[in-house]
Write a structure and sequence with these properties.
alpha/beta, 4-stranded parallel sheet, globular
């Protein structure tokens, strides 16, 4: 235990005794909250009128994580009135504006944060996501750039837009399945510039991506055989992408699981993503909540997650995303949460309804219920 931790532990009983005598003392609730990292104590301090920007920022951050975006905004305005030069509070303000779908404000607030601290990576990400949410793909991807996030260590020069004719490019899929499915549309563009393109992706995507023109798909590759490399999520930035063609770009494999013929409307459902996703609690749900819908006469529901079938859905053997694509081509409709199944259905041109959280990711846009021309298909 450090000296500071020892001193804090010793002072806690004293603060609690003082609080017993002065239960409405905002400063005591603040000090206890900061000592024991108690959001409840900090919230009590704020309710009693505490004007400490550290406390206001801490409570606002907790509220943003908990989905209380409007209340967080009020606290951040109060905190910035007290401490207008705090880059961290401006970054939180940008995050809050993003959460309430105000991309212009998110961009402006992130810019204020970066004006105070140019190296603030969280503010750089906030700027990128604000631009992407607002549809400014070129500048959004540029702000997201590889220099502001962790990328794999590959012993090759990073490709940043150099001439590709006659050269070999290694593209590494480093993000989630849905991200890689979305970025796959750009791989033939690289090949069209004369590059010999090798895409390294997880085994679950290898067969699906094999239909991409001019692209060699592997689960592993030797860097020595290539001139450059690039993470797959960085390809739009390097290409200077500012608009996305929403036509289907993945082909259905020649074989896969076949569904039995039926006169019923056949609907594929995906109600969960990977549990390791940081926002999974805002998208995945218990299929039991769909019991009445899944019991609808005249509709046959097919589970699109090989590990998440329910008694009310048809289960099919799915070994990879090529199998899922083959099944999707036999469906009348896909209904999915914001997960790889939704992106795959869009990439195939299958009619799709997507169930989004109140704060959808930037790729779905900020304008509400409409067909988007962004990266959702």
């Amino acid at each position: 235990m450090t000296r500071a931790e020892t001193d804090a532990r010793a002072s806690l009983p004293i603060l609690r005794r003082l609080l017993a005598d002065r239960p409405d003392a905002a400063v005591l609730w603040r000090d206890i909250g900061l000592l024991v990292h108690s959001a409840v104590a900090l919230a009590r301090s704020v309710a009693l009128g505490s004007d400490d920007s550290d406390v206001l920022g801490g409570i606002a951050a907790a509220m943003l994580a908990d989905g209380r975006h409007r209340r967080a905004g009020r606290l951040l305005r109060r905190g910035l009135t007290l401490s207008p030069g705090r880059a961290d509070l401006w970054q939180l303000a940008s995050q809050q504006a993003y959460c309430v779908r105000l991309p212009e404000a998110a961009i402006r607030f992130a810019g204020r944060a970066l004006a105070y601290d140019r190296s603030f990576s969280a503010a750089q990400r906030a700027l990128a996501f604000g631009r992407l949410l607002g549809g400014d793909l070129a500048r959004g991807f540029a702000a997201l750039g590889v220099r502001f996030r962790e990328i794999p260590a590959v012993p090759l020069p990073l490709w940043t837009g150099e001439r590709l004719a006659g050269r070999s490019l290694l593209v590494v899929g480093e993000e989630g399945f849905g991200d890689m499915i979305q970025m796959a549309r750009f791989l033939p563009v690289l090949a069209g510039r004369g590059a010999r393109v090798t895409a390294v992706v997880p085994a679950e995507l290898r067969r699906l991506f094999s239909s991409l023109d001019g692209v060699t798909v592997a689960v592993d590759a030797s860097p020595e055989a290539h001139n450059f490399w690039i993470p797959m999520m960085a390809v739009p930035e390097a290409l200077g992408i500012d608009v996305v063609d929403d036509r289907p770009y993945l082909a259905t494999p020649a074989s896969g699981p076949r569904l039995e013929a039926s006169d019923d409307l056949t609907v594929g459902v995906a109600w969960r993503g990977r549990a390791s996703h940081p926002n999974d609690s805002w998208r995945s749900f218990d299929p039991g909540s769909l019991a009445d819908i899944l019991a609808t006469r005249g509709i046959r529901f097919v589970a699109l997650d090989p590990e998440a079938g329910s008694s009310a859905t048809m289960s099919v053997p799915l070994t990879d995303f090529a199998d899922t694509a083959f099944v999707m081509r036999q469906l009348d409709l896909v209904i999915a949460v914001d997960t790889a199944a939704a992106h795959l259905a869009g990439a195939l041109g299958v009619p799709t309804w997507v169930l989004l959280a109140d704060v959808p990711e930037w790729r779905w846009g900020a304008a509400g219920d409409r067909k988007s021309t962004r990266l959702n298909s």
